[in-house]
Write a structure and sequence with these properties.
The protein is α/β, with parallel strands linked by helices and 338 residues long. 41% of the residues lie in helices and 18% in strands. The strands form 3 sheets. Strands 4-3-5-6-7 form a 5-stranded parallel beta sheet, with helices on both faces. The chain has a 5-stranded parallel beta sheet with strand order 9-8-10-11-12, sandwiched between helices. Strands 1-2 form a two-stranded antiparallel sheet. It starts with a strand and ends with a helix.
Amino acid sequence: MRGRLLHGRSTKAKTVILGGLKDHLKTIRRSRRIVFIGCGTSYNAALAARPLLEELSGIPISMEIASDLLDRQGLIYREDTAVFVSQSGETADTLHALEYALENGALCVGITNTVGSAIARNTHCGVHINAGAEIGVASTKAYTSQIVVMAMFALAISGDSILSQARREAIIDCLFELPCKPHLPTFPAHSSFCCKVRGVLELDQEMKDLANLLIAEQSLLVFGRGYNYATALEGALKVKEVALMHSEGILAGEMKHGPLALVDENLPIVVIATRDACFRKQQSVIQQLHARNGRLIVMCSKGDAASVRTGGSCKVIEVPQAEDCLQPVINIVPLQVI
């Protein structure tokens, strides 16, 4: 984020600068719609940013898995902006989707972690997430960095909107609280101004204890909603990739349409219930799962344990609270550690 966020006392001093997009912002703002295209973790990161993009831009946002877009030859128009999200910038399906979008005349934007990659070279403009090389096969820090960059993308294209000014300032303030600041005390004593992500990493031993409880299990369900539906999908994906264990991310609003039939005392379930507009609905989900004797692990905001704990067998993970659109950056870390 260094050099991309300006943060001062005055309203005008709080802004986002994305040099790779500055010559195309007017075109993006005039788009008929913005289509985000990716695979796997990159798709999940775009999904996490979708609500904020819709809220701030006022432009219809579409999400496409690259392979599915190609299989059905989905519609891409000249008036569209197509955003291609890829950690490596070389994902085969995403590259083919880029070729398809270029053929159809769309403005193409790349969000990658690799300078000089095929996607970076062949798009009209773009943003590098600057997360550093991913050492393992599973994408972790690139995922959180992609969410942050897409939040900044939303801020940049809504920069001329007076109506969303207060919301934009709150998000920029929160972005400054996310990275580690070594000179500041750590969570929880000073969570209002310290490194929130470092605060989650301090739960390392607690996550190891939970992992030991899950190590012999055959399956895991992860329920999320709103901004954290993507967190549920990504958390389940990481369990599959790293732990080689079956796991499924589920939209909590769809619980009654099939998933509830699977719930019993033998099935471990993670419910993401941090404070946001969906909190009360998630409390209801927790109660219904508890009524079915589900083995619950509930992730909540610090101080909310009593509000979500349903019984002695319910495990609770308390994480720092952030602006709702950036909460997925924090919430995914415990699931990555597990």
